[in-house]
Amino acid sequence: MLLGYVTAILPELTLEENLSFAAQTGYDCLEVMCWPPGKAERRYAGVTHIDISKLDTEETDRIKALQKKYGVSISALGYYPNPLTADEAEAKVYTDHLLALIDASVVLGINCVTTFVGRDKDQTIEAQWPRFLATWRPIVSYAEERGVRIGIENCPMRFTKDEWPGGTNLAVSPAIWEQMWADIPNANWGLNYDPSHFILQHMDYTLPFRNYPERMIHVHAKDARIDIDKRNHHGIFSHPNLWHTPKIPGLGDVDWGRFIGYLRETGYDGAVCVEVEDRTFEGALELRKAALVQSYLHLCQFVN
């Protein structure tokens, strides 16, 4: 099992600087953000540590050499847009980049892409299911033909006014995953599983990898804290930001010893990448670096 971090939290550092910091801290790998260069559409988005539009032979060789130099691998190429947004022209921009990212992962020898399936927030799941299939069947098949695995994060994406009422990601529960995999049964796609999103939904965060071990493509290490008094005051149907707070590992409600213990028992031997969205540690670069150091020191008790 490899311990890493998601590079989105250090956007001002270059890829080499991230690899160097990871090596100094003790991390084994990085999930590297590969958004098209441009303005971020939301927090933690729009980060480009590898610009795949410039991935010629020289750049490919440089990236491979940097991994060897620092002894830190790239676990996945990450890109988290909404491929099912209501604006189909916008959605095509996202799916086109996903296909290009699949090709880039092959060229770099990484063969793993992490992303969202997306959702039209104003439609029911049933109403948009045909569009989901029309969008994702060809993407998954394209990746399968090239030996690339796709890990879908399970974040509900219902945290801002622009994401309500339905959120912008379908893949939030086992019931939906099972339907996804039944209709698109290709073995090369599964989860980029984040337990914090099950804390939010009051679900057992160890069940996904216990029940679907073959669908564990990649894992995020992010924690979350539920303020019981605030939840009791507002109710679970209120905006989750009123009673739910993302935290770094060890400062929330995930029991990481239990989590990693069960994960090991399933035979998972891939990447577990820290994702920092803890606002206590936002701001100065050194504070964000400190969050990654503290997360490493907590998780390395269980991942080595």
Indicate the radius of gyration in whole angstroms. Answer: 18 Å
Task: Assign the CATH architecture.
Answer: Alpha-Beta Barrel
Q: Spell out the helices and strands N to C.
A: EHEHEHEHEHEHHEEHEHEH
Secondary structure category: alpha/beta
Give the integer mean of the pLDDT values.
93
* Parts with pLDDT < 50 across at least 5 consecutive residues: none
By CATH, the topology is: TIM Barrel
- How many beta-strand segments? 10
Helix % is 25-40%
Anisotropy-based shape: globular
Strand content: 15-25%
Spatial strand arrangement across the major sheet: 1-2-3-4-5-6-7-10
Number of helices: 10
Give the CATH superfamily. Divalent-metal-dependent TIM barrel enzymes
The total domain count is: 1
CATH class descriptor: Alpha Beta
The largest pleated sheet is described as: 8 strands, parallel, barrel
Structure in words:
This protein is an alpha/beta fold and 304 residues long. It has a single domain (2-299), classed as Alpha-Beta Barrel (TIM Barrel). The chain has ten helices and ten strands. It has helices spanning 15-25, 57-70, 88-107, 125-145, 174-183, 196-200, 207-211, 228-234, 256-265, 285-299, and strands spanning 2-6, 29-33, 73-78, 112-115, 149-153, 189-193, 216-221, 223-226, 244-247, 271-274. The strands form two sheets. It has an eight-stranded parallel β-barrel, surrounded by four helices. Strands 8-9 form a two-stranded antiparallel sheet. The termini are close together. The mean pLDDT is 93.
